[in-house]
Write a structure and sequence with these properties.
two-stranded antiparallel sheet, 14-stranded antiparallel β-barrel, about 35% strand, single chain, about 500 residues, about 40% helix, 14 helices
Length: about 500
């Protein structure tokens, strides 16, 4: 009898329990198990509010129903509320460690919030629980690949940030070190090139910076920044045609940006000329005895190529009744990226100019320094031959150029020396040939046409002079204004003052 009673009670409980596992949804009573497909359908159709509401409704009555806890987690994950999804997936696995479907979304959720450590723990728990499951094994392999990329990306981001700090502090050695590390880890990441180019620009290594920006360009990075930098470097190198080629597309793309319009105008104004015509005039006055004289001239300059120029000159002068003319030829020839030379030869008729004059100087640029050495020959109107040499050194300090020259000459009677110190300030970066200058001289230089008559003066080294000038460029016109005062000893106890005014006008074509 007792045995029969227990059997009846068992069947009653088994029958009543399913009847009690019901919830009301949309004003209808449903068996809980029958609502699982409905919740999944809501999820797949993107009706996330419905799937969440249904899951919460079931879990309010049956909090241990893992299927709905899992569906609720998936719904939050799909909504982007990963922080809400994670506790639900964790709850599923805490109640049922064999609930295989919950491992993958839980690991991905941790991965999406950057918690790679916990994501890896979830994968390891899944592998321990299901070691033979090929899908989990393959998914874990893909995770390891992403993890490696994340670690690389983390290092790349960290090195890049530190490299930018190095740029800000001026520590380019650290910048290059970070850039090297980045290139070794991910060779095709452009950020290493950005660091390297910025460091080269900071060091004023413009040719290396140009090569680096060109590498970015070759990788498809033709951004506004890269175009601007390539244009800036071309302008620094005075390659205004190339600078214009980079800036013109930006001017057309951004017509409202006055900056690009201004740069385009500046680069056009400084484009290399094909030839130019020049008019020069020097007016001089002396006080012992009182008198005036002048030298006027025409010149034609022809650009042979990008850096070589040939200049023809014709000058006419009148000095105290002595008249004469001079024909000359100058050539600036480029030998290499930082090596070029000046050549000059001239012949004259009359006493105003030396009969023959020849000059040669070779120039070497070394960073902010400029050096030159050369030779000079002057045959005066009274047939005295002067042979000599010149050596100079100059340096740019910002926009200012300081230049010291020394001459050593020998005629038939004596050795003569002369020195010149000039200070030239370029006051407008948009007009690189515009400057103000001041020049001080001791002795008589063979390069100064206003003082040829004193070249063989035995008191030549006792002469002094100071000159100041201004050169400016407006569109295709260039002009120079120079004024000077000279003081000579012409005999024992006898000195003479000379005042010079030089005007020059050039039209570039």
């Amino acid at each position: 009898m007792d045995k029969l009673l227990y059997i009846l009670i068992f069947f009653q409980i088994a029958w009543i329990a399913p009847l009690e596992a019901q919830v009301i949804w949309n004003n209808k009573k449903y068996d809980v198990d029958s609502l699982v497909p409905q919740a999944i359908r809501y999820l797949h159709e993107g009706k996330l509010d419905q799937s969440i509401m249904l899951s919460r409704t079931v879990l309010a009555t049956y909090p241990d129903y893992t299927d709905f806890t899992y569906i609720l987690g998936l719904s939050y994950q799909k909504m982007g509320k990963v922080d809400w999804a994670i506790p639900n997936f964790e709850s599923v696995l805490a109640k049922d460690a064999n609930y295989k479907d919950s491992y993958l979304p839980l690991a991905l959720s941790y991965e999406s919030v950057g918690d790679w450590f916990r994501a890896k723990q979830v994968w390891q728990r899944a592998l321990q629980r299901f070691p033979q499951d090929t899908a989990i094994t393959e998914a874990y392999r893909e995770f390891k690949t992403r993890e490696a990329l994340y670690i690389s990306s983390y290092h790349m981001d960290d090195w890049y940030k530190k490299g930018r700090k190095g740029i800000a502090s001026g520590d380019t050695s650290k910048v290059f070190s970070y850039a090297d590390s980045m290139e070794n880890l991910i060779p095709n990441d452009n950020r290493s090139l950005y660091l390297r180019s910025a460091a080269f620009m900071l060091n004023k290594e413009y040719s290396k910076a140009k090569s680096t920006y060109e590498s970015l360009w070759s990788r498809g990075d033709s951004s506004v920044f890269v175009r601007e930098q390539l244009s800036n470097i071309a302008a620094i190198n005075k390659d205004y045609a190339l600078a214009l080629a980079y800036i013109e597309p930006l001017r057309r793309q951004f017509p409202d940006h006055n900056h690009y319009e201004r740069l385009s105008r500046v680069y056009r104004e400084n484009l290399p000329y094909h030839f130019y015509l020049g008019l020069n005039h020097m007016q001089s006055a002396q006080d012992r005895p009182n008198g005036h004289f002048f030298i006027s001239g025409l010149e034609y300059g022809q650009r042979l190529n990008k850096k070589d120029v040939l200049i023809g000159q014709f000058n006419y002068g009148n000095r105290r009744g002595d008249k004469g003319y001079q024909a000359g030829l100058d050539a600036w020839i480029n030998y290499g990226p930082s090596l070029y030379a000046y050549h000059h030869i001239a012949w004259a008729d009359g006493a105003v100019f030396p009969t023959w004059r020849a000059a040669y100087s070779i120039y070497r640029e070394a960073g902010s320094w400029l050096f030159d050495v050369g030779g000079r020959y002057v045959r005066s109107a009274d047939r005295i031959n002067n042979y000599g040499m010149v050596a100079s050194a100059g340096r740019y300090i910002g926009p200012t150029f300081i230049y010291l020259r020394g001459f050593l000459l020998h005629d038939s009677k004596r050795w003569n020396q002369a020195y010149s110190l000039s200070l030239r300030h370029y006051y407008n970066s948009e007009k690189p040939d515009s400057y103000v200058t001041i020049i001080g001289n001791i002795g008589t230089s063979p390069d100064d046409p206003s003082r040829y008559q004193f070249l063989n003066n035995s008191y030549g080294f006792l002469s002094r002079s100071i000159n100041a000038g201004w050169q400016h460029r407006i569109d295709s016109w260039g002009f120079t204004l120079m004024g000077g005062w000279s003081y000579y000893k012409v005999a024992e106890g006898t000195f003479m003052n000379q005042y010079d005014l030089n005007l020059s006008l050039k039209k570039y074509f």
